[in-house]
Amino acid sequence: MDALILLGEGFAGALTWQNLIWVVVGCVLGTAVGVMPGLGSSMAVALLLPVTFSLDPTAAFIMFSGVYFGGLFGDSTTGILMNTPGQASAIASTFEGHKMALNGRAAQALATAAIGAFVGGMIAASLLVFFAPLLAGLSSSFGPAEFFALAIFAFAATSSVVTDNAAKGLASLFLGLGIAVVGIDGVTGTPRFTLDSPNLFDGISLVTVTVGILALGEVIHVAALERHVRGRAMVRPSGRPWLTRRELREAAPAWLRGTAIGLPFGVIPAGGSEIPTFLSYGLEKRLDARRKNPMFGKGAIRGLAAPEAAGNSTTGMAMGSLLALGLPVSATAAIMLAAFRQYGLQPGPLLFERSPDLVWALIASFFIAMIVLLVLNLPFAMLWAKLLLIPRPYLYAAIAVFCGLGIYATSGATFDLLLLLAIGLLGFVMRAHDYPLAPLIIGMVLGPLAETSLRDAAMSANGDLTTLLQGPIVLTIYAVLLVVLLAAGRNRLLARRRAKAATAKESVEVS
């Protein structure tokens, strides 16, 4: 009951005309960026991070949440109309969504995606009202060993489980950890990895890294390697932009199942919404195979409804994990955690005690953002698709300019612009060689937490590192991590066996 009272106070703060404007601005920007293939909510938040420091923290985070949710809404639009998902989280929606579009049901596919994202997001936000305070209360019993275990969980899951190549994922993670330790050591006061340059005594700004890796790196990659790639033909939606009762009855169970699958992944640091969207798609495909007239492969509405609901429910719960534990489960959440720190705020139980107005206004804005996004996407999805007509040279040139302006505005130092260029080139090299970017971001964000927790635990135990393996919460976290790693290893072995079997079958057929 207390949670509902606090939520009501949050709505009172979120429904001021200033905050409503920032909700709409965030939703519009997130959707617009999500529609662009190759871009996404993480890039949008990274670009906005340098220019929002003049805003009130509540307004800034309300806008960021709108961008976060809006990016997921926009990602599916390109996947459905062009078979080119904006982000990896929209790949599963593309399989059946684009087939629906090719069958003349593009408008219904867009409506299915918009309603599915709305259902998943609203259910997640509703559970978040009661779940986040409980999780914050649990995290108040966390000590250095528990936070270190949580950081190790995030490192292992994001670098090994959700990447195709574990070696590349770990390399990206250690690169992020290496960047995080540059600067003056807070305990000993000695410079570390600064090359005797005073410009590096304060460390490398996370804002510079995120903008360089995610935004400028993408610009250089497109300019260098994708300039001759032609865009795919876009299906023009026609007909009714709503669903019939029969279609609603068909999609509703899939929306609920997808939401149920996505919710736990908002707490598990497993890379965001990629895994639950594929799991929900796989479940619907198996259920469809039992029907008398299977529809998968022909434009099954359930194959689109479930992944869309799963993606947004994961994102909704991920915000709860970020607020209550300070644990980012995706690259976008990691950037938002950095934004909290830039404002001098540390997510966790103390955030609920010291800044309840911000927390509950932000949670209330999730509900408002879902409604705004439904209004923006249900009838106007085709208008968003027209953004794809912007010439790519103009679009990416504008992104490059915003990168430089944003970084220079925050520091006023030419050195930071040179550092931005160097990190952008690093991002380009990582993209060119298929190194994942999320482990680098999460490693840099959680690296200081892991280091501080390790030192505190060791000092409190007089150097006895076995204290890192003591306590029920610590053992539970490591046990869950072990199960996740074993399951990931088993799935990879099975995938390799299937690939070898398919290759052998093809060679036999050819011969």
UniProtKB/TrEMBL annotation:
Residue ranges constituting the DUF112 domain according to the UniProt record: 20-442
Keywords assigned: Membrane, Transmembrane, Transmembrane helix
Transmembrane feature ranges: 20-49, 109-136, 142-162, 169-188, 200-224, 322-340, 360-384, 396-429, 469-488
One family name in Pfam for this protein: TctA
Domain of life of the organism encoding this protein: Bacteria
Protein name, UniProt field: Tripartite tricarboxylate transporter TctA
